[in-house]
Amino acid sequence: MKENLPVLLLRKLVLLPYQEARVELNIDLSKKIMDLSEKFYNNKLLVICPLNTLESSPTESDLPTVGTLTKIKSKIILPNGNYRVVLSGLNRVKVHEYRNHPIEPEILESTVKRIYIDDSDAAEETAILRTLKAVLDKYMLINPAASNSVTNTIANMTDLDMLTDVVTNYLPFDIHKKVQYMNEFDYLVRANDLIKDINVELEVINIESKIEDEIRESFNREQKELIIKQKISKLNEELGLGADKQTEVSLYNEKVSKLNIDKKIKDKLFDEIKKYSYTSETNPDSSVTRNYLDTLISLPWKKYSKDELNLPKIKKKLDNTHYGLEEVKQRILEYIAIKKNTGNVNAPILCLVGPPGVGKTTLGISISHALNKEFYKISVGGLNDSTELTGHKRTYLGSSPGKIIQGLKKCGTANPVMLIDEVDKIVSDFKGDPTAVLLDILDPNQNKNFTDNYIEEPFDLSKVLFILTANDIQSIPSALLDRLEIIEINSYTEFEKIDIAKKYIIPAIESEYNINKYKISDNDILKLINCYTKESGVRELRRVIDKIYRNIIIKEIKNKTIKWETIRDILGPEKYDNNLKTSNYPGSVNTLGVTQYGGVVISLESILLPGEKGIKITGNVQDSLKESASIAYHYCLSKVSDFKLNKNLVDNNTICINALQYGIKKDGTSGGIAIATSILSLLLDKKIDNATCFTGEITLHGDISKVGSVKEKIIGSYNNGYKRVFIPLENKNDLLYVPDKIKDNLEIITVKNYEEIFKILFKKA
Predict the structure, then answer these.
(1) What was the pLDDT predicted at 56?
(2) Residue from 37, 329, 713, 717 carrying the catalytic annotation
(3) What is the pLDDT of residue 762?
(4) Rounded-to-integer distance, Cα 677 and Cα 675, Å
C-alpha cells in the first residue's frame, strides 16, 4: 500500500532500518518537517540522502528513489531553539514521486511503498546466515574497536534481513558504500555483498599489520609522517586501489603541456604542479593547489564554438520564438554580418530595457540557439557582493572563481552568450559595489584582460556576447550605462498580443500538453486581454490561456471552438473593466506617465477651497511634480485676463489637486499641461472629455517642452481605451516609432504652446 510522507534530507548520514540516529536540527525547514510529521503523519517521515552530497540545492533528479521509513522516537527542544531528535529507521521503501507539500510548499512530500521480497530457499538462507556470522566473528576478533555488546547482539540474531542492516551500520563503510546497501531490497544480495566486503576488510587489516611491522623495523619514531605515507603507498600497491601521487603529477604535466595558453601562464602552472608534488597529502595546501590546477586546466582557453553565419537562418530562428523585437534582431544580424565580412569582431554589449513580460530574458536564450552558442545566465538582482562576480582569493578556505569564470567553465567555450539579468536592481552598500566590477567586465577595451581573483591570470572576455536586461533605465548606474548599447523594448499593443497569443502562446501550449488544436476567435482573445490581464508584456496572458487549456483537458471539452461563455466559466468574473468612467467633473483630467511596467494613465481631480490664494497637490507626488504644478499654476495666473478667468475665484480660494492611482509614485515633469488644464477646467467650470489625456511640460510663458518615453505613454493610453492625446511638438519624431495601427485609431495632437490647447478645449469654433 502506498503512503504519503514528508521528506527529510540528511547529506552526510545514511539512516538504515533498525538503526537509531541522534540528530540536532538548527534549520527552520527541518524543524517544520518534524512538527508536520508529529501533527499529520503519526511521527513518521521519509529520510533520504541526496545522490550528490556536494550539491547545495539538489533538484528532483538528484534525489534517490529509495529511502528509509523513519519514526521520530523522541524530540527535545533545546534552550537555543534547536531540536534534538532521535530517529529510528523502520523499513526501506521505494519512492514513487516527489512534490511540494500542499500545506507547506517549501517542504517536499513523497509517495512511498514498501517492497516485499519473495521468500527464499530456507537452506540457502541458513547457509548464508552462518557464513556471514563466521566472517563477522573473525572480523570482531582481530578488530580492536569491536564492542562486546555489538558482538552479543549480532550473535543472537536469526533474521538475515535485520542482520545485514545492523552489520552495514556497524562496519566502517564510506557513505557511497552505505548508499549501495541502502538501495538493495534483496537481503540475500546484501548478505553476499557483506561477506565479500568483510573479507576485503580482513585482508586490509592483515596487510596493515604486516606493513606496520615492516615499517617499524626500518624507521624510528621521529619519522612518523613518513611511516604514514609508506603505509598508504603499500596499501595502494597491495590492493590496487589507484595510482600514486607521482602518476597524478605526471598527468597534470601532460594536460598543461597540451593547453593553448601563453607561456607565462603555462610556466606558472608547472610551478604549481611542482609545489603540489612536494606537498604532503595531510597538508591543507595540497587540496587547495589541486583544486586550483583542476580549475585552470578545465577553463576554455582560446576555445571557441563555431558561430552560425547564415543570416536568413538566424532571422528565421529568432522569428520562430519571439514576435516583433525587430531592433534587437537587426542588431544581432548586423553583428554576424560584420563578423562574416571581417572574420573577427568583438561582440557588442547589449542592454534590453523594457517592462516585465515582453521577452527580454527568453530572447537571450533564443539568440544563443540561433547563433549556435552556449548560454549562461547570471542574475544580479539584489546582488551586493562584488566577489560573486570576481571570485575569492584562493588563500581563503573554500574559495572559488566568480560567476563569470564559472559560466565559461560550464559552457566550455570562450564565446558564449552570457545574460546578466536585472542589472537595474544591483545593490551597492557597505559589503561592496558590483557595479564597479561590471565596468571592468563590460568595457570592450578592458575585458580582453579580465582577471578573476581566484585564477589570478587574465582571461579574454571580448568574444563573449553579453546581453543585459533591465526594467527601468533610470535605475542603471550612469557609469555603467555609458558602456552599454541600449535597446528599448516597449509594451505590446492589444493587436500585437493577439498575434502573439495565436502564433506563439497557443501553439506552444497545445504542443506541450499534446492536445489537438482548439480555436479561439480574435474578438475573444481581445476580451481575454482586456478583462483578465493588466500588463505590458504577455506573461499573465500566458498564464490565463494555460489555465483555459488545463480545464479543457480536465473537463474533456469536445467542441474545438472555445466560446467566451466557456472562458468566463473557467476564469470566473472579469477582473478588469477597461471602459472609461462616465462621471466627470470640472477639473478632472488625465495625464500620461510611465513606470517599469509600461505606460500608465493617471487621473487628476481638483476642487476649490475657500481661503488663502494658492495651490496644493496631493497623491504620493514628488518634488519635481510639485514644481511642475507650481509653474502651471503661475502660468494660469498670468493669463487671468486673456483666458477671462474669474479673478475673485483665484484670489479667494486654494486650488487643491489630487493625483489618483495611489500605488504609483508620481515623479517627473511631464504632467505640466495636464495640471494647467485641470486648473483652467475648474476655474472656467468646463468639463474635459474623459477620452482625452495629456503629456508635456509647460513653462511660465506657456511653451510646451519635450518629454521622454512618449511611445510607451501613447501605447499605454491606447491600451486603456483613450481616443485623443496631446503631446509636445518637439516629440513629433517619436511618433515614427508608434505602430501605424495605433496612429490610425488614436487622435494624436502635437502642440507648441498651451494657447493651442486652450483654443481646442475651451473656445468653441
Answers:
(1) 63
(2) 713
(3) 84
(4) 5
Compute the residue count for the chain: 765
Mean pLDDT of 83-101: 89
Distance in angstroms (rounded) separating the CA atoms of residues 650 and 638: 11
> First-to-last CA distance in the chain?
86
Give me the pLDDT at residue 118, please.
67
Query: In this structure, what C-alpha cell is assigned to residue 445?
Result: 577595451
Helix, strand, coil percentages, rounded to 5, for the chain = 45, 20, 35
Residue 31 is among the residues annotated as catalytic for this protein: no
Among 44-48, 556-560, 584-588, 706-710, the range of highest mean pLDDT? 44-48
Cα separation of 677 and 587, whole Å? Answer: 8
Hey, which residues does 694 pair with through a beta bridge?
Answer: 591, 726
Query: Could you please report the per-residue DSSP string of 666-700?
Result: B-SSTTHHHHHHHHHHHHTT----TTEEE--EE-T
CA distance linking residue 692 with residue 601, whole number of Å: 10
Q: Strand, helix or coil at 617?
A: strand
- 152: burial class by Cβ within 10 Å (0-12, 13-18, 19+)? exposed
Residue 184 has pLDDT above 60, yes or no: yes
**Which residues on neighbouring strands pair with residue 48, listed in sequence order?**
9
> So what's the pLDDT on residue 273?
79
Q: Give 277-291 pLDDT, tens digit per residue.
A: 777 666 777 778 888
How is residue 416 written as a grid cell?
558564449
Residue where the block lists cell 587574465: 458
Mean pLDDT, the chain, whole residue set: 80
Would you tell me the crossing angle of helices 311-321 and 360-370 to the nearest 10 degrees?
150
Kind plus residue range of the DSSP H or E element containing 761:
helix 754-762
Asked if pLDDT for residue 499 goes beyond 50, the answer is yes
- In the predicted structure, residue 94 carries a pLDDT above the cut 50: yes
713 catalytic residue (yes or no): yes
| pLDDT of res. 37 | 87
CA distances from 298 to 39, 182, 376, 517 (A): 50, 34, 17, 47
Residue environment code for 655-681, b if the CB has 16+ CB neighbours within 10 A, otherwise e: bbbbbeeeeeebebbbbbbbbbbbbbb
Q: Which of 670, 678, 681, 709 is catalytic?
A: 670
Q: How far apart are CA 516 and CA 572, in angstroms?
A: 24
Long-range pairs, 125-129, Cβ under 8 A, ≥24: 125/160, 125/188, 128/160, 128/188, 128/191, 128/192, 128/195, 129/158, 129/160, 129/163, 129/191
pLDDT tens by residue, 226-246: 666 566 566 655 544 445 667
